[in-house]
Write a structure and sequence with these properties.
Layout: E1 2-9, H1 10-15, H2 18-26, E2 30-37, H3 40-46, E3 52-55, H4 61-71, E4 75-78, H5 83-94, E5 98-102, H6 117-120, H7 122-139, H8 143-154, H9 160-163, H10 167-170, E6 174-177, H11 180-190, E7 197-199, H12 208-212, E8 217-224, H13 236-248, E9 254-258, E10 273-276, E11 283-288, H14 293-297, E12 303-307, H15 316-319, E13 323-325, H16 352-363
Parallel strand pairs: 1-2, 1-4, 2-3, 4-5, 5-6, 6-7, 8-9, 8-11, 9-10, 11-12, 12-13
């Protein structure tokens, strides 16, 4: 079988699904890793493995169609439902290629963007427009109408299935999700049927025992970085003010920073910040906002404080086991964790074999829905 995994950044194909790709390569499957943005670490990881690593430069219907016709995959997989993902999925479905999605993080229907973000990111905006035109041509709908539909959901915050009234063309055939809540979420937001979705558990929870077995650091704080500034969701000055106060109100504490793969490290130049690419320490206190890694923290021994920026509401399910504040003075005020409240949202029990076998089953099933 030939399977294409697509993501905007090659790094994401390593970070989120490398265990799945590795298992499929061992099984003798033909794997294609398709990406837009190059990442050296991601390339180094896959370069010596038996898979095709291919950079996508197509922004038109003909270009995307040519890639799919040349590769002739049995399945086209994505990690999210962004415009680029949807452009490929729409063309793939028009060619009767099966499509699927693996949840790779915590999705929010509308993410607040910094004012003038689209102007500052001119090239990205142009790409978004062109991908919308690919979809319009594929489904034979008015190009301006299609672009406005996506603009209304991604920029104005209209619920996806209400803004995009052609979901039958852009939605994938099946989704693999973290927990029961996300099945309802994808139904209510994107218009998927419950029977199109399968719970696989949250892969990060497999790290719980290893982290808890590390030496406990009572005087340490771990900050979970998100790409709020990098993605235009928060003004840099606001983030810098937060970090200054994080230092101020945690005196004499060791401060670890768990980086996101796309973190702008220039935000963390203060010598007190200890930057961690992959590891999560076993410490008394974790500080963050609304990263999906908060779910992992809920299963650890430490306590959690989530700082809520204006316009960035903390999801209700994180509030059940964290202390929420918008006052810097409360950063050290904590509540006890309760991992029992997390299971419906971020279920345990993830195994690579379970996910891979489920994908194989969907490829071999004639009626995906």
């Amino acid at each position: 079988m030939k399977i294409i995994f697509y993501d905007i950044n090659l790094k994401n194909l390593q970070k989120y699904i490398s265990d799945i790709v590795d298992k499929m390569i061992i099984d003798g499957q033909e794997i294609v890793l398709l990406y837009d943005e190059y990442d050296q670490e991601g390339y180094d990881y896959y370069s010596n493995k038996e898979c095709l690593i291919m950079q996508n430069k197509a922004l038109t219907y003909n270009g995307i169609q040519k890639i799919l016709l040349n590769l002739k995959p049995d399945l086209f997989m994505v990690n999210a439902q962004r415009l680029s993902d949807s452009a490929f999925v729409t063309v793939a479905k028009s060619l009767n290629i099966k499509t699927g999605m693996i949840q790779h993080g915590m999705y929010i229907p509308f993410m607040k963007r910094e004012k003038y973000y689209l102007i500052k990111k001119v090239l990205k905006t142009i790409k978004y427009f062109m991908y919308s035109q690919v979809i319009a041509k594929t489904i034979n709908k008015n190009r301006l109408f299609v672009f406005k539909s996506f603009y209304n959901t991604f920029v104005k915050g209209v619920i996806y299935k209400d803004a995009v009234n052609f979901i039958q063309y852009v939605n994938v055939d099946f989704i693999l999700v973290y927990g029961e809540y996300w099945k309802e979420y994808h139904k209510d937001v994107f218009g998927y049927k419950l029977e199109q979705q399968y719970i696989i558990g949250y892969h990060e929870l497999n790290k719980v025992d290893a982290i808890n077995s590390k030496q406990h650091e009572e005087d340490a704080v771990c900050y979970i970085a998100q790409t709020l500034v990098e993605d235009g969701r928060l003004d840099r000055n606001i983030m810098e003010e937060f970090l200054i106060n994080l230092l101020k109100y945690t005196p004499n504490k060791t401060i670890y920073v768990k980086l996101h793969p796309r973190t702008d490290k220039s935000l963390f130049l203060d010598k007190r910040f200890i930057l961690l690419e992959k590891e999560i320490p076993n410490c008394r206190l974790y500080v963050g906002h609304y990263s999906s890694l908060i779910a992992l923290l809920g299963y650890l021994k430490g306590d959690i404080v989530l700082y809520e920026f204006e316009g960035h509401s903390i999801p209700f399910y994180f509030k059940e086991f964290s202390n929420i504040t918008n006052d810097y003075k409360d950063i050290l005020h904590t509540v006890s964790n309760n991992s029992n409240k997390i299971e419906p949202y971020f279920a345990s029990g993830y195994t690579t074999s379970k996910v891979v076998n489920l994908i194989y089953k969907k490829i071999n099933t004639n009626n995906l829905q």
